[in-house]
């Protein structure tokens, strides 16, 4: 990659320098979690009760074992040193050092962060970052939020911070935190506080306490090396054996406080003899006025700079810090270039996104897309979890309960993570989730293809992937099964990266090394699926959980109350899709190395076998297609051999639409061995050829279509999907048909009735923790995949093939126009409507209409199936960040590029 020289390409130049190994621009970033407490990593209980073992109340006083958290946090990529912000409004019972929320048992819909914060801007190298935290001037209602949500039932809305009335009169602070890099190891931090109270009112006091801490790496081993922070020339001297020596310069004359990032044994474990200056010393100093809590020698492993501000109503105040290597910090005055650098980095960020958004004419769409990318960048996190050490326990600590050795994640002893990872959400999901990860990479590739590629490679490395080929699902249960979307993601990232490369070199063939590297590992994963998730060896797959929380009457990852197993329409369709994804990658590689033609043929034949099985064409195969209902259903296979269709009209039955690939005639011509084998197979297995498409009649441009669905079945599924009384909402495709609102599905066994009804918003079941629901809401990832599949179908069928949309409207449009219609409905979730409001924020008038709220976007986990309001995790810019990709206009209606 050539290094651009123009000022407009400054961020691209930093990316190029980082890729070339000339400058480590990614060494520092927003890698600090929003929540380390209540995670599996920090849970050393016998029964795996993570939320109870390490609750929020312990977080200020108890050292973490595996990571750190903090407000608006920033750290190096190994999280040796962490910089974050603490606040106190003079009324709260605790120092605001981290975000507060409810645990899975406390919330009426599961875990839920109860704060107002926003990721507003970011560049891929973190050369510029902007974060906003809204802090009430009245006492933060910790107990009220807990008590009211605990009182409410699952059929009631969640009680949020805005519902307390604390923001009704605008007596709150907007606390903006910005970071700018002078160089890879020279970081500026600017905190700007706005008192939003009406002008003329009384001023408000606010304590600002930016703080540094070393992640505690020394307490768990004998003679562990302990780094050191100490007062130095009005700032903090930083000494670390691996990170090196740094210096924190503090503008003005703050009071410097020091303590150790170690557990307060007196408070947590009732160890009255425990002595020291513990992790919660700053809380004691500020809140309780206990001056003896901090180290008078002004040294330790945690340091803070205490600023006392008085901010007039309607006005603002600022605070500046500079963290740099010692030689940089002492080279000159730290503040001389502070403001010019910030101004330059903001300008460079504007120029970077202006280049990216040239084709987006709508200013509101540009704002939303930029915040979506910002959220994805801010959601990077250092994730550290050494499973064998976690199971065994640390040498200097009491041994964990023996039950743990056969409990959670005990079969994943090879897993050892210490990496910066794209997280779904750094409070509600502060751990990687494998299928979320794939969607993140597709969106991130638009702004940082190298990072996206490295993330996909990372997930498949030997310290993640199980020796048997399984990919880890997520921290709570690595052994759960997520949809196999990683081949799709890898090829999409490859395509996006190749498109970008060809802007400067039209002959660029793309990063084939990356594609081949992930393909080899995906072969192992595919083999695991075939060997472990095909109960009868008939190309019908069980899968299990597959990410669709609460969508069936049973928890599909656990033994069924009936016995037997479920043949899954989605599991089988995902595997058909996986075959086609691997086929497409193999064909791409085969154009450069003909060895891959044989592998492509293998996946072609395997796909046909799965297509035959799911459609009932194999000998003795029942199939999962219901001819009367014209829909795909899961089938319950009982121990006595009875086969029971589970007639739930859900996303499970739409996922067969995703198994589609279009082969270009030019590609087939270049690969004669593959072409000959394909033609032989189709001639000698005509029942399979007829099953998937009419190969004697080519599509637009002599293209060939591989799909689970011929025209009739595709039309049947689309007829139901595009029906506004069933799947189609004003904001996208629902995960469960609205038909079940009046006609719930019921299944009786063992004297118990199991039921599936349409729930358009939050879950009313605790089956998967209670905060996720696929019984009606709109989910971004599934909609995104459906859109791409429609684009592929259009690529084959062309403009003459039209479908009624919406069903019953009398309006017939092309498949590409249907894809555009779904895109429009999804983007309407976050864009301003004719009333100037965003559907995603309409659950509170303050969010929807207030000038200091309405343009700050929340990217929710999923969306109300009728109104579009945001539900679930409020900051899941992970896969909902796909909205950034959807806002990018397509250049022409062809297969996705």
Helix/strand-derived class?
alpha+beta
Helix content: 25-40%
Instruction: Compute the number of helices.
Output: 25
Strand content: 15-25%
Strand order of the largest sheet: 6-7-8-9-17-13-12-11-15
Please state the CA-atom Rg, rounded to the nearest Å: 28 Å
List the helices and strands and how they pair.
Blueprint: H1 10-19, E1 28-29, H2 50-53, H3 56-59, E2 71-76, E3 81-88, E4 101-102, E5 112-113, E6 116-122, E7 128-136, H4 142-151, E8 172-183, E9 186-195, E10 204-214, E11 228-232, E12 235-240, E13 244-250, E14 255-259, H5 265-269, H6 281-286, E15 299-300, E16 302-311, E17 316-325, H7 326-329, H8 338-356, H9 363-378, E18 380-386, H10 387-392, E19 416-422, H11 434-444, H12 449-459, H13 486-502, H14 512-532, E20 565-567, H15 569-590, H16 596-614, E21 625-626, E22 631-632, E23 634-637, E24 643-646, E25 660-663, H17 665-670, H18 672-684, H19 686-692, E26 704-707, H20 711-721, E27 728-729, E28 732-733, H21 739-742, E29 745-749, E30 752-756, H22 780-797, E31 802-804, E32 812-814, H23 815-827, H24 845-849, E33 862-863, E34 870-871, H25 882-886
Antiparallel strand pairs: 1-2, 2-3, 3-10, 4-5, 6-7, 7-8, 8-9, 9-17, 10-16, 11-12, 11-15, 12-13, 13-17, 14-16, 18-19, 20-23, 21-22, 23-24, 25-26, 27-28, 29-30, 31-32, 33-34
Helix pairs in contact: 11-12, 11-13, 12-13, 13-14, 13-15, 14-15, 15-16, 16-18, 16-19, 18-19, 22-23
């Amino acid at each position: 990659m050539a290094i651009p020289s123009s000022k407009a390409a400054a961020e691209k130049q930093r990316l190029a320098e980082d890729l070339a190994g000339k400058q480590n621009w990614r060494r520092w970033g927003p890698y600090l979690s929003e929540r380390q407490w209540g995670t599996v990593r920090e849970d050393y209980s016998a029964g795996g009760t993570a939320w109870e073992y390490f609750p929020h109340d312990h977080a200020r006083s108890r050292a973490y074992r595996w990571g750190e958290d903090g407000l608006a946090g920033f750290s190096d990529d190994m999280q040796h040193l962490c910089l974050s912000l603490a606040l106190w409004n003079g009324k709260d019972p605790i120092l605001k050092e981290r975000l507060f929320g409810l645990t899975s048992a406390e919330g009426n819909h599961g875990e839920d962060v109860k704060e107002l914060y926003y990721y507003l801007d970011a560049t891929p190298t973190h050369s510029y970052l902007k974060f906003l935290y809204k802090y009430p001037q009245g006492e933060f209602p910790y107990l009220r939020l807990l008590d009211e949500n605990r009182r409410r039932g699952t059929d009631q809305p969640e009680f949020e911070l805005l519902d307390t009335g604390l923001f009704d009169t605008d007596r709150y602070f907007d606390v903006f935190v910005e970071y700018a890099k002078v160089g890879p190891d020279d970081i500026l931090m600017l905190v700007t506080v706005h008192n939003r109270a009406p002008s003329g009112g009384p001023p408000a006091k606010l304590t600002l306490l930016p703080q540094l801490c070393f992640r505690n790496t020394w307490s768990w081993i004998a003679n562990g090396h302990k780094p050191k922070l100490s007062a130095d020339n009005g700032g903090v001297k930083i000494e670390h054996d691996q990170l090196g020596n740094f210096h924190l310069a503090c503008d003005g004359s703050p009071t410097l406080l020091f303590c150790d990032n170690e557990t307060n044994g007196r408070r947590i474990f009732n160890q009255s003899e425990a002595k020291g200056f513990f992790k919660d010393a700053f809380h004691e100093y500020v809140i309780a006025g206990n001056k003896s809590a901090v180290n008078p020698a002004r040294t330790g492993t945690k340091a803070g700079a205490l600023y006392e501000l008085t901010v007039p109503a309607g006005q603002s105040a600022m605070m500046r810090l500079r963290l740099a290597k010692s030689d940089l910090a002492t080279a000159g005055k730290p503040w001389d270039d502070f403001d010019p650098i910030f101004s330059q980095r903001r300008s460079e960020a504007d120029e970077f996104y202006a280049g990216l958004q040239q084709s987006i004419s709508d200013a509101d769409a540009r704002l939303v897309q930029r915040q979506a990318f910002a959220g994805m960048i801010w959601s990077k996190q250092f994730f550290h979890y050494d499973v064998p050490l976690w199971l065994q326990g640390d040498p200097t600590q009491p041994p964990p309960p023996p039950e743990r050795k056969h409990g959670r994640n005990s079969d994943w002893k090879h897993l050892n993570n210490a990496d910066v990872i794209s997280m779904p959400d750094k409070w509600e999901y502060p751990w990687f989730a494998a299928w979320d990860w794939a969607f993140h990479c597709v969106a991130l590739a638009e702004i940082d293809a190298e990072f996206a590629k490295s993330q996909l490679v990372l997930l498949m490395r030997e310290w993640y992937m199980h020796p048997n080929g399984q990919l880890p699902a997520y921290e709570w249960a690595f052994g759960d099964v997520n949809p196999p979307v990683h081949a799709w993601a890898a090829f999409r990232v490859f395509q996006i990266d190749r498109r970008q490369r060809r802007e400067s070199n039209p002959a660029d063939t793309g990063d084939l090394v990356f594609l081949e590297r992930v393909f080899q590992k995906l072969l192992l994963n595919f083999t695991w699926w075939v060997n472990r998730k095909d109960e009868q060896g008939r190309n019908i797959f069980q899968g299990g959980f597959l990410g669709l929380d609460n969508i069936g009457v049973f928890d599909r990852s656990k033994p069924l109350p009936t016995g037997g197993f479920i043949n899954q329409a989605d599991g089988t369709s995902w595997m058909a899709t996986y075959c086609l994804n691997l086929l497409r990658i193999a064909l791409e590689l085969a154009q450069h190395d003909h060895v891959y033609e044989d592998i492509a043929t293998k996946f072609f034949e395997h796909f046909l076998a799965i297509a035959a099985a799911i459609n009932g064409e194999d000998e003795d195969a029942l199939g999962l297609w219901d001819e009367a209902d014209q829909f795909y259903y899961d089938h319950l296979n009982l121990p006595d051999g009875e086969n029971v269709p589970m007639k739930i009209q859900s996303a499970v039955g739409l996922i067969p639409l995703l198994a589609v690939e279009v082969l270009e005639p030019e590609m087939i011509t270049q690969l004669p061995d593959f072409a000959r084998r394909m033609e032989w197979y189709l001639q000698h297995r005509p029942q399979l050829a007829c099953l998937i498409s009419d190969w004697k009649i080519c599509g637009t441009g002599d293209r060939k279509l591989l799909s689970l669905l011929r025209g009739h079945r595709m039309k049947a599924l689309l007829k139901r999907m595009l029906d506004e009384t069933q799947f189609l909402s004003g904001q996208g495709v629902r995960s469960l048909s609205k038909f079940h609102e009046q006609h719930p599905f019921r299944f009786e066994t063992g004297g118990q009735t199991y039921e599936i009804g349409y729930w358009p918003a939050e879950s009313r079941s605790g089956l998967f923790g209670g905060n996720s629901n696929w019984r009606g809401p709109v989910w971004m990832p599934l909609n995104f995949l459906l859109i791409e599949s429609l684009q592929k179908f259009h690529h084959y069928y062309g403009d003459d093939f039209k479908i009624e949309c919406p069903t019953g409207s009398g309006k017939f449009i092309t498949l590409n126009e249907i894809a555009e219609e779904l895109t429009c409905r999804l983007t309407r979730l976050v864009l301003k409507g004719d009333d100037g409001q965003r559907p995603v924020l309409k659950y509170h008038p303050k969010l929807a209409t207030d000038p200091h709220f309405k343009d700050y976007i929340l990217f929710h986990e999923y969306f109300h199936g009728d109104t579009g309001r945001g539900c679930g995790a409020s900051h899941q810019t992970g896969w909902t960040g796909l909205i950034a990709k959807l806002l990018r206009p397509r250049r022409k209606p062809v297969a996705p590029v």
